[in-house]
Design a protein that fits this description.
Elements lengths: L2 H13 L6 H11 L5 H15 L4 H18 L2 H17 L3 H12 L8 H17 L3 H17 L6 H13 L3 H17 L3 H18 L2 H18 L2 H17 L3 H15 L5 H17 L3 H41 L1 H109 L5 H32 L8 E4 H11 L1 H6 L3 E6 L4 E4 L1 H17 L6 E9 L2 E8 L6 H6 L20 H12 L5 E4 L5 E9 L5
Helix pairs in contact: 1-11, 2-3, 3-4, 3-5, 4-5, 4-16, 5-6, 5-7, 6-7, 7-8, 7-9, 8-9, 9-10, 9-11, 10-11, 11-12, 12-13, 13-14, 13-15, 14-15, 15-16, 17-18, 18-23, 19-21, 21-23
Length: 645
């Protein structure tokens, strides 16, 4: 049960009362259509942004920017800070955490320029919550504690929901006693106040507390107590989540029968309520259930469904975030230079009409000449048909024979490669499985004899083995999709900077563990055209290999440079290096060219093969510059969007 799930539940509970405010929203929209002062426009825009926050993020962001633009005109710092907070909240709800933190930090820059300690404390609180979501628990503790101290020093009321967020960060940091004190205090307060919604929120954190301690019986007890409360409050959709959490708890207790019962209840509930994240979690739990009961075919089926549905959810989320960034770009451009934008739009309209005219003329001429050419070509074919008929028949027979021979040879080669791949996978996947099972068994049997530091050390071993196994299986899945033609090439314009930052953050822990200096270099606003998912997989494989084959205290650099309408992306390391003979073997499974990393890491050799296949969809290739003992540089190029040229 992660902090992200708890935060999502908390936000859903807060959004329930907003559904009955349609009339008020319409009234506020009507006010904006009239001639009003900038001050009134700020207040109306802020109210609409907050009311749309949990129902329509695009509308919420638009109205927050309307309020921000009006606040800039008034020069009121407090109004500006409130608008910045609302803009940050939109990105936070959409999981665009880095962008959200930019706006929260903008509020902190205004400390001392206005009497708005309430907004500053909220900014600290939201930064702490965001760092908690990003699993940067030390930073989360600093910001959440600062927020609480500021609220106390300025006589602000510290809400019990804020205490729950603080307790979540404390749980993640291993401060169980302090976390329990905050959770139980909040739960007692909500119970005395007969605030059922607050009780449900507090009980989520109490369940997580028992889960963190490994006391799954108490966790199940808390979750069961939430069911009648949710029904009493009319939170019927929330029951889907509770049953799903109960199923997860029962699986941890090794009670698959009870888990299956709760999963069926959650699935029945989902027929009435559209909760994609709960449906995704249930797919994973069904896979675990069937694996536990020995029905591996069903387990694989649900695992595939989980991966496909997860891909679709991530695609939707990425599209939503892209829409928010499009809105941000449009609104900030409007704020900076509205007059210039109008002029540019006029020029673009004239240019478009002019280009459209010439394009139409060109199309007409091309169609005319194409028709003439087809007529002449048809006459020519008719004259030659009788003469070529026999020759064509013989040529076809010869071609069919050659194709059959080639297909037979190709099939034999593919079968040999597949057989070799399965042997490779059987060898390379068994090691992380053995490590995962061995440390898990040791931890399960000796946990009562271990100290906390030993438990943490063994847990880190398990995590690293699981992470390695996940990386290998993910590459295997990509390879299988390529082999079965299930890969869909979906190019679009996307932010290369963000993809590079996300991949770098994903492997920062791996680099820090090996004391490798991980560097990221790029110019601003790199919008490229391509399939974002494929490019992300390529970046991940290149960066993973670079860290894997680089010694401690080495340097790994991911860089993007733009020149002549293209962006060149490169990953450079100071590792082993490759000979010319080794380079020829990299992309051929027949050789199975792979070797252990500098810390004994295993691999299948699929990563670069998959990367090469994905880049071929983009009409580009992977360039390798490497010499033994001098490190390596892997690079490729992508087309740049017109927006950045």
């Amino acid at each position: 049960m992660t902090g992200k799930i708890l935060t999502g539940i908390f936000l859903i509970c807060l959004s329930l009362p907003l559904r009955a405010q349609t009339n008020e929203v319409d009234s506020l929209k009507e006010i904006l259509t009239k001639k009003i002062s900038d001050t009134v426009e700020v207040q109306v825009g802020l109210k609409l942004a907050q009311k749309y926050l949990f129902t329509d993020r695009e509308e919420s962001l638009r109205y927050a920017y309307i309020a921000y633009e009006a606040a800039l005109k008034t020069g009121d710092i407090k109004s500006i800070n409130q608008a910045l907070l609302d803009i940050g909240n939109v990105y936070s709800v959409e999981n665009a955490y880095n962008t959200a933190m930019e706006y929260y930090r903008s509020i902190l820059k205004n400390i001392g320029t206005c009497n708005c300690n309430d907004l500053i404390s909220k900014a600290y609180m939201r930064l702490g919550q965001t760092f908690n979501e990003l699993r940067q628990y030390d930073s989360a503790q600093v910001y959440l504690t600062t927020a609480a101290e500021l609220m106390r020093s300025t006589n602000q009321r510290l809400l019990h929901t804020d205490l729950l967020f603080i307790s979540d960060a404390e749980l993640n940091a291993g401060k169980y006693d302090s976390a329990y004190k905050h959770i139980q205090g909040s739960l007692d307060w909500f119970t005395r106040d007969k605030d059922i919604r607050g009780q449900i929120i507090a009980m989520q954190y109490l369940a997580k507390y028992y889960e963190s301690l490994g006391d799954y019986n108490e966790e199940e007890k808390v979750l069961l107590e939430m069911i009648p409360l949710s029904r009493k409050a009319g939170f019927n959709a929330f029951l889907c989540r509770i049953y799903s959490m109960l199923a997860a708890t029962c699986l941890k207790k090794k009670e698959p029968s009870k888990a299956h019962t709760y999963l069926n209840k959650s699935t029945a509930c989902l027929k009435k309520h559209d909760l994609p994240k709960v449906r995704l979690k249930n797919m994973k739990l069904f896979s675990e259930y069937y694996a536990t009961t020995g029905n591996y075919n069903k387990a694989i089926e649900y695992t595939n469904n989980y991966l496909d549905f997860n891909d679709s959810l991530q695609t939707v989320q990425l599209n939503n975030v892209k829409k928010l960034f499009d809105i941000r770009y449009d609104m900030e451009t409007k704020i900076k230079s509205l007059a210039l934008l109008k002029k540019d739009n006029h020029i673009r309209e004239l240019t478009y009409k002019k280009n459209l005219f010439f394009k139409n003329i060109t199309r007409i001429l091309l169609i005319f000449f194409a028709v003439i050419f087809l007529i002449l070509f048809y006459v020519y074919l008719e004259q030659k048909r009788s003469h070529k008929k026999l020759l064509e028949t013989n040529r076809k027979l010869e071609t069919v024979h050659k194709e059959l021979e080639n297909k037979k040879l190709q099939q034999e080669q593919e079968n040999q490669i597949r057989n070799k791949l399965f042997m490779i996978l059987a060898h390379d996947l068994i090691n992380p499985f053995n490590a995962l099972l061995g440390f898990a068994e040791l931890l399960s049997e000796e946990i009562h004899n271990f100290e906390r530091k030993d438990i943490k050390r063994h847990s880190e071993f398990i995590f690293q083995a699981a992470k390695q196994l996940h990386f290998l299986l993910e590459n295997l899945l990509h390879w299988a999709r390529i082999q079965t033609n299930r890969i869909q090439f979906q190019p679009s314009y996307f932010e290369l900077n963000k993809a590079m930052r996300d991949v770098t953050e994903m492997y920062r822990y791996m680099a820090e563990k090996k004391q490798i200096n991980l560097m990221l270099q790029y110019t601003d606003d790199l919008i490229v055209y391509g399939d974002e998912n494929m490019i992300t997989v390529v970046l991940r494989n290149l960066l993973h290999n670079a860290i894997k084959y680089t010694d401690k205290l080495g340097v790994v650099t991911m860089e993007a440079t733009r020149q002549d309408g293209q962006v060149t992306v490169s990953v450079t390391d100071t590792g082993y290096g490759l000979s010319e003979e080794d380079k020829k073997k990299l992309f051929n499974l027949e050789y199975h060219f792979t070797r252990k990393g500098t810390s004994g890491e295993e691999g299948t050799g699929l990563g670069l093969i998959i990367s090469k296949e994905f880049l071929s969809y983009h009409s580009t290739s992977l360039t390798i510059e490497s010499s033994p003992g001098e490190g390596s540089r892997f690079s490729f190029s992508l087309a740049v969007s017109n927006k950045t040229q």
